[in-house]
Design a protein that fits this description.
Blueprint (H helix, E strand, L loop, with lengths): L4 E5 L23 H11 L4 E6 L4 H7 L10 E6 L21 H6 L10 E5 L2 E2 L2 H13 L6 E8 L10 E8 L5 E13 L2 E5 L5 E3 L5 E9 L2 H17 L9 H10 L4 E7 L4 E2 L6 H13 L10
Parallel strand pairs: 1-2, 1-4, 2-3, 6-12
Antiparallel strand pairs: 4-11, 5-13, 6-11, 7-8, 7-11, 8-9, 9-10
Helix pairs in contact: 1-4
Length: 304
């Protein structure tokens, strides 16, 4: 049975964070969040890591995340997300600055992920060991199949930031735990003790504490690449002139689910997600990692 691959989306520029948060040392020995993700992936039986990065910081990234760093316990590959990686017939608009989004980033790995199922994560999100075991087990169960995907759904209350609003994909499920819809809600935060989101008119609407949301931890089989390639061209025809448009994973997933072409199982996690959306989030991340080390979940030095 093929071991699953971990696809790490690390091409973001960290505009709200103020630096390359993918490489920021938050562990006691300078470990980045990526280090903990890879440590958990190794324990969960993943065989390879593929980093999606940009050429502008390739040198720094390769110098930090080497095979030697991980003690030769997992294979490593790099692919690149750039603005000009578009289908034939399309060119980058002159005013385009932003990358083309998370699903475009996933598409960059088509040439290196051939047969094995793979999980997708954000480089700056701490998902927890349970999530990697859960998604790894599911991916092994569908190895060699098609159209059977998954995602880890987190309870909304466990994904908020104390320093600003967040955007989350709100998940709808059927009676079998499969995804029926994913609606992107922006400007989610606590207001007078309750979780609310703000719509485009500025009105506030409540959300339940245990609402399941996507934190961009998905599991796919390689057939997902063809679906993405086919739809990306259609997406660009409608959106290429919008400088803020992005081809997100939920955009692709929603389309496939609504058309009945795939089944996507939502794997429930009650764990505390945390990440570094804002610079002010960093001390809390450092503290949470310290507590997990004290609890024996991680060694003080990951890569001995």
């Amino acid at each position: 049975m093929l071991k699953p691959t971990l696809l790490v989306l690390a091409a973001g520029m960290g505009s709200r964070y103020g630096s390359l948060k993918q490489m920021d040392g938050v562990g006691p020995n300078g470990e980045a969040i990526i280090d903990y993700s890879i440590y958990d992936a190794i324990r969960a039986g993943f065989g390879r890591v593929v980093f999606v990065i940009r050429h502008t910081f390739e040198k720094e990234f390769r110098e930090m995340f080497t095979p030697e760093r991980f003690g030769g316990k997992i294979d490593i590959d790099f692919v690149f997300q750039e603005l000009d990686k578009l289908p034939e017939g399309f060119t980058v608009p002159a005013d385009r600055v932003k990358p083309w989004g998370t699903n475009h980033a996933v598409m960059m790995a088509e040439g290196v992920i051939k047969e094995e199922p793979f999980a997708v994560i954000n480089s700056d999100d701490f998902y927890g060991a349970e999530a990697y075991k859960t998604i790894g087990d599911y991916l092994r169960s569908v190895s060699g199949q098609q159209n059977h995907y998954c995602m880890v759904g987190y309870e909304l209350k466990n994904t908020l930031s104390d320093y600003g609003s967040v955007s989350r994909g709100i998940c709808g499920l059927d009676n079998n735990g499969n995804l029926t819809s994913m609606v992107e809600r922006t400007k989610i935060e606590r207001h007078n003790g309750k979780i609310v989101y703000e719509d485009e008119k500025g009105d506030l609407f409540p959300l339940a504490e245990d609402t399941l949301v996507s934190m961009n931890m998905f599991g796919f089989t390689p057939d997902y690449f063809k679906y993405s390639k086919d739809y990306f061209s259609a997406y660009l025809k409608d959106n290429i002139d919008n400088p803020k448009s992005e081809f997100y994973i939920p955009t692709m997933v929603n389309k496939l689910v609504k058309e009945g072409r795939v089944q996507l199982r939502v794997l429930h996690s009650s764990a505390q997600w945390f990440g570094v959306t804002y610079k002010e989030d960093r001390p809390a991340v450092v503290e949470r990692i310290r507590r997990q080390i004290e609890a024996g979940i991680y060694p003080e030095k990951l890569w001995k």
